[in-house]
Amino acid sequence: MKGSIVTFIANKWVYYKLRRTAVIEVAIVGAGPAGSYCAYKLAEKDIYPSIFDYSHPREKPCGGLVPAGAQEFFPFLKALPIPHSERSSMTLIAPSGRRLTLSFRKDKILGLSRLKFDQYLLDMAVNEGADLIEEKVIGLERKYGWWKVRTQKQSYAVKTVVGADGVNSMVRRNIIGSLSKKDKGVCFGYFVKGLENEDITLKLLPDKKGYMWIIPRGADTSLGIGSSEIWRHPELKNELNTFISNFCPQVEKISGWTALIPNVKDPKTFRNPIAGSNWILIGDAAAHVDPISGSGIIYALLDGELAAEVIAEDNPEVFNKLWMDTYGQPLLRATKLRGWVYKRPLLEVYCMYLKVQNATTFA
């Protein structure tokens, strides 16, 4: 009882000091998969967060591949009411040119539009009771033990803030500093029409420390290329354009894009705290993307669910241990293996390993 009274008085004092500021219990900055799913899971627990995002949903420049096995963790993926492709196998082209077919024991891999998928997740959150504030967050600072979140329109007093605002996260920058440039990769590609009946195909590129992909998404196809090294962007563009000219000149280009992605190379990055007493970073803002495959969607959803769990328990800082215990070790191992995997001989072996395992985590 005493603790409840102290908390009540403290909150009243903050309200008095910030009485000209709107007060929010939980603010989630960013309405991508991590932010929207976190909001949905919080609302399920009768905690109704405010999601700040002035641009979502939007088409995100990425492959849009959800790996086999994700449906086991997130059953709602089994009946997505949005255009998407489903495949029970995929084609992997090794550096030697050898084509391997990877078949999956259970579930299917999904190819989807991030515009449609992000809209679906955001609708889930809002329909469950979350509030969408379509304003751009331009400032964040600690104030009387809370957070002062500034948008272009007004300021908000926030008890707990969740940074789900991507690889160039403003929340991360203001709390622990931006993700290092060396821990980022780059992608280039097009959304096209004309390849919707093709297999999901990945072509590994050891010289570029990356891969090229064809991922049908239902109504269109993502055709792209990615590398863990940012400076290779001009090479990637030339390589992809040459591939299109030689192998699929008939495709209709809808739009082109370039994007930075998290690609952690230093294991210490994953060991840095990404949560405190009243803040958490999730998804790309936390750099939770597989350093070898680039897979990120499943980690975004996992982050959202775990973040909601610790916020509901009023102990956000536990997220540091929870995410590492749940799926952090494979990401740490990938940072140590990535330099070896993309050497040509080992990449051939890696392809055969995936073939034997009948599974892949590429996305």
At a glance:
This protein has 363 residues and is an alpha/beta fold.
Describe this structure in words.
This protein is α/β, with parallel strands linked by helices and about 375 residues long. The chain folds into two domains: about 1-60 and about 115-180 and about 265-340, FAD/NAD(P)-binding domain; about 65-115 and about 180-265 and about 340-355, D-Amino Acid Oxidase, subunit A, domain 2 (D-Amino Acid Oxidase, Chain A, domain 2), CATH 3.30.9. Helices cover about 35% and strands about 30% of the residues. The chain contains ten helices and 18 strands. It has helices at about 1-15, 35-45, 70-75, 115-130, 170-175, 235-245, 265-270, 295-310, 320-340, 345-355; strands spanning about 20-30, 50, 65, 85, 90-95, 100-105, 110, 130-135, 135-145, 145-150, 155-165, 185-195, 200-205, 210-215, 220-225, 250-260, 275, 280. Strands 1, 2, 8, 9, 10, 11, 17 and 18 form an eight-stranded mixed β-sheet that branches. The protein has a seven-stranded mixed β-sheet with strand order 6-5-13-14-15-12-16, with helices on both faces. A three-stranded antiparallel β-sheet has the order 3-7-4. A hairpin with a 3-residue loop joins strand 10 (about 145-150) and strand 11. Helix 8 packs antiparallel against helix 9. It is globular, with a radius of gyration of 21 Å. Residues about 5-10 and about 360-363 have low confidence and may be disordered.
